Amino acid sequence: MKLTKSLEQAICIMTLLATQDKEIPVTSAVINHRLNGSPTYIKKLMRKLVVKNLVTSVSGNNGGFTLVDSPKKISILQIIEAVEGNISTYPNSGLIDIVFQDMQVAANQGEIVLANVFDEADALWTNFLATQTVADLLYKTLGRNEILVLNWNELDEHQSLLQKILPTK
Protein backbone atom coordinates (compact mmCIF):
# COMPACT_ATOMS: atom_id res chain seq x y z
CA MET A 1 0.00 0.00 0.00
CA LYS A 2 1.40 3.34 -1.00
CA LEU A 3 -0.07 6.24 0.88
CA THR A 4 -1.22 9.05 -1.37
CA LYS A 5 -0.92 12.82 -1.44
CA SER A 6 -4.46 12.90 -0.05
CA LEU A 7 -3.12 11.72 3.31
CA GLU A 8 -0.62 14.57 3.50
CA GLN A 9 -3.38 17.02 2.59
CA ALA A 10 -5.72 15.53 5.20
CA ILE A 11 -3.06 15.82 7.91
CA CYS A 12 -2.50 19.46 6.94
CA ILE A 13 -6.24 20.10 7.15
CA MET A 14 -6.46 18.40 10.54
CA THR A 15 -3.58 20.47 11.94
CA LEU A 16 -5.16 23.66 10.57
CA LEU A 17 -8.40 22.75 12.32
CA ALA A 18 -6.54 21.75 15.49
CA THR A 19 -5.08 25.25 15.79
CA GLN A 20 -8.33 27.01 14.91
CA ASP A 21 -10.55 28.58 17.55
CA LYS A 22 -13.20 25.85 18.04
CA GLU A 23 -15.97 28.47 18.07
CA ILE A 24 -15.02 29.76 14.61
CA PRO A 25 -15.10 27.21 11.76
CA VAL A 26 -12.37 27.43 9.10
CA THR A 27 -14.01 28.32 5.80
CA SER A 28 -13.74 26.17 2.70
CA ALA A 29 -12.14 29.12 0.92
CA VAL A 30 -9.33 29.28 3.50
CA ILE A 31 -8.71 25.51 3.32
CA ASN A 32 -8.67 25.61 -0.50
CA HIS A 33 -6.31 28.59 -0.47
CA ARG A 34 -3.92 27.06 2.08
CA LEU A 35 -3.79 23.70 0.26
CA ASN A 36 -3.66 25.34 -3.16
CA GLY A 37 -5.75 22.50 -4.51
CA SER A 38 -8.80 21.93 -6.60
CA PRO A 39 -11.92 22.99 -4.67
CA THR A 40 -13.77 19.93 -6.01
CA TYR A 41 -11.02 17.56 -4.88
CA ILE A 42 -10.69 19.18 -1.46
CA LYS A 43 -14.46 19.00 -1.05
CA LYS A 44 -14.26 15.21 -1.62
CA LEU A 45 -11.41 14.96 0.88
CA MET A 46 -13.34 16.98 3.46
CA ARG A 47 -16.34 14.72 2.92
CA LYS A 48 -14.22 11.67 3.83
CA LEU A 49 -13.14 13.36 7.07
CA VAL A 50 -16.74 14.31 7.87
CA VAL A 51 -18.07 10.80 7.12
CA LYS A 52 -15.46 9.28 9.47
CA ASN A 53 -16.56 11.73 12.17
CA LEU A 54 -13.19 13.48 12.45
CA VAL A 55 -14.46 16.82 11.15
CA THR A 56 -17.82 18.51 11.37
CA SER A 57 -19.26 20.72 8.68
CA VAL A 58 -21.06 23.89 9.74
CA SER A 59 -23.36 25.40 7.14
CA GLY A 60 -24.37 29.02 6.71
CA ASN A 61 -22.70 32.40 6.25
CA ASN A 62 -20.31 31.76 9.14
CA GLY A 63 -19.87 28.11 8.19
CA GLY A 64 -16.85 25.98 7.60
CA PHE A 65 -15.17 23.08 9.34
CA THR A 66 -14.11 22.21 12.89
CA LEU A 67 -12.68 19.14 14.57
CA VAL A 68 -15.22 16.81 16.16
CA ASP A 69 -12.85 15.92 18.98
CA SER A 70 -9.73 17.22 20.71
CA PRO A 71 -6.48 16.93 18.69
CA LYS A 72 -5.22 14.80 21.60
CA LYS A 73 -7.85 12.18 20.77
CA ILE A 74 -7.44 12.05 16.96
CA SER A 75 -4.83 9.56 15.87
CA ILE A 76 -2.86 9.52 12.65
CA LEU A 77 -4.31 6.05 12.07
CA GLN A 78 -7.83 7.50 12.09
CA ILE A 79 -6.83 10.00 9.42
CA ILE A 80 -5.16 7.29 7.30
CA GLU A 81 -8.22 5.06 7.52
CA ALA A 82 -10.54 7.96 6.66
CA VAL A 83 -8.57 8.84 3.54
CA GLU A 84 -6.88 5.60 2.45
CA GLY A 85 -8.92 2.83 4.06
CA ASN A 86 -7.60 0.05 6.27
CA ILE A 87 -3.88 -0.65 6.15
CA SER A 88 -3.11 -3.77 4.17
CA THR A 89 0.32 -3.84 2.55
CA TYR A 90 0.44 -7.31 1.00
CA PRO A 91 -1.34 -7.46 -2.36
CA ASN A 92 -1.63 -11.29 -2.49
CA SER A 93 -2.40 -11.53 -6.18
CA GLY A 94 -2.10 -15.33 -6.22
CA LEU A 95 1.28 -15.26 -7.98
CA ILE A 96 2.81 -17.78 -5.57
CA ASP A 97 0.24 -20.37 -6.67
CA ILE A 98 1.03 -19.71 -10.32
CA VAL A 99 4.83 -19.74 -9.96
CA PHE A 100 4.84 -22.89 -7.83
CA GLN A 101 1.82 -24.66 -9.35
CA ASP A 102 3.74 -27.95 -9.51
CA MET A 103 4.24 -27.78 -5.73
CA GLN A 104 0.71 -26.79 -4.67
CA VAL A 105 0.94 -27.80 -0.99
CA ALA A 106 4.15 -25.79 -0.51
CA ALA A 107 2.75 -22.91 -2.56
CA ASN A 108 -0.35 -22.74 -0.37
CA GLN A 109 1.79 -22.83 2.77
CA GLY A 110 4.14 -20.19 1.36
CA GLU A 111 1.20 -17.92 0.59
CA ILE A 112 -0.10 -18.31 4.14
CA VAL A 113 3.32 -17.65 5.68
CA LEU A 114 3.93 -14.54 3.59
CA ALA A 115 0.43 -13.18 4.25
CA ASN A 116 0.96 -13.72 8.00
CA VAL A 117 4.29 -11.87 7.93
CA PHE A 118 2.64 -8.86 6.32
CA ASP A 119 -0.37 -9.07 8.65
CA GLU A 120 2.01 -8.90 11.63
CA ALA A 121 3.89 -5.96 10.10
CA ASP A 122 0.61 -4.16 9.39
CA ALA A 123 -0.48 -4.71 13.00
CA LEU A 124 2.78 -3.21 14.32
CA TRP A 125 2.48 -0.20 12.04
CA THR A 126 -1.23 0.22 12.82
CA ASN A 127 -0.65 0.03 16.57
CA PHE A 128 2.11 2.64 16.39
CA LEU A 129 0.05 5.04 14.25
CA ALA A 130 -2.87 4.66 16.65
CA THR A 131 -0.67 6.12 19.42
CA GLN A 132 0.38 9.17 17.41
CA THR A 133 -2.09 12.07 17.58
CA VAL A 134 -2.61 15.35 15.78
CA ALA A 135 -1.64 17.07 19.05
CA ASP A 136 1.62 15.08 19.14
CA LEU A 137 2.48 16.31 15.64
CA LEU A 138 1.87 19.91 16.69
CA TYR A 139 3.79 19.55 19.96
CA LYS A 140 6.83 18.11 18.19
CA THR A 141 6.65 20.63 15.36
CA LEU A 142 6.30 23.71 17.55
CA GLY A 143 8.52 22.49 20.38
CA ARG A 144 5.91 23.02 23.10
CA ASN A 145 3.19 21.04 24.85
CA GLU A 146 0.38 23.39 24.03
CA ILE A 147 -1.57 24.18 20.90
CA LEU A 148 -1.80 27.82 20.01
CA VAL A 149 -5.33 28.77 18.99
CA LEU A 150 -5.68 31.01 15.93
CA ASN A 151 -8.31 32.17 13.51
CA TRP A 152 -7.09 31.04 10.11
CA ASN A 153 -9.93 32.98 8.52
CA GLU A 154 -8.14 36.19 9.55
CA LEU A 155 -4.51 35.18 9.06
CA ASP A 156 -3.12 38.71 8.58
CA GLU A 157 -3.95 39.57 12.18
CA HIS A 158 -1.84 36.64 13.36
CA GLN A 159 1.11 36.87 10.94
CA SER A 160 3.56 38.15 13.58
CA LEU A 161 2.10 35.74 16.12
CA LEU A 162 2.80 32.82 13.79
CA GLN A 163 6.41 33.93 13.45
CA LYS A 164 6.74 33.93 17.25
CA ILE A 165 5.48 30.38 17.69
CA LEU A 166 7.64 28.79 15.01
CA PRO A 167 10.90 27.37 16.28
CA THR A 168 13.97 29.39 15.33
CA LYS A 169 16.77 27.70 13.47
Outline:
This protein has a domain at 5-86 and 132-154: Orthogonal Bundle (Arc Repressor Mutant, subunit A), CATH 1.10.10.10. The protein contains eight helices and two strands; from the N terminus they run αααββααααα. The chain has helices at residues 5-19, 28-35, 39-51, 76-83, 95-99, 104-131, 134-142, 155-165, and strands at 55-58, 64-67.
- What fraction of the residues are assigned to beta strands by DSSP? under 5%
Helix/strand structural class: mainly alpha
Series of secondary-structure elements, N-terminal to C-terminal: HHHEEHHHHH
Q: Summarize the main sheet.
A: 2 strands, antiparallel
**Mind telling me the CATH superfamily name of the domain at 5-86 and 132-154?**
Winged helix-like DNA-binding domain superfamily/Winged helix DNA-binding domain
Could you tell me the mean pLDDT?
Answer: 89
The low-confidence runs, each spanning 5 or more residues with pLDDT under 50, are none
User: Quaternary status of these chains?
Assistant: single chain
Instruction: Assign the CATH architecture of the domain at 5-86 and 132-154.
Output: Orthogonal Bundle
Please give the number of β-strands. 2
CA gyration radius, whole angstroms = 21 Å
Question: Order of strands across the widest beta sheet?
Answer: 1-2
Number of helical elements? 8
**CATH topology category name of the domain at 5-86 and 132-154:** Arc Repressor Mutant, subunit A
User: Terminal Cα separation, in Å?
Assistant: 35 Å
- Residues in helices, as a percent range: 55-70%
* Overall body shape: elongated
* CATH uppermost class of the domain at 5-86 and 132-154: Mainly Alpha
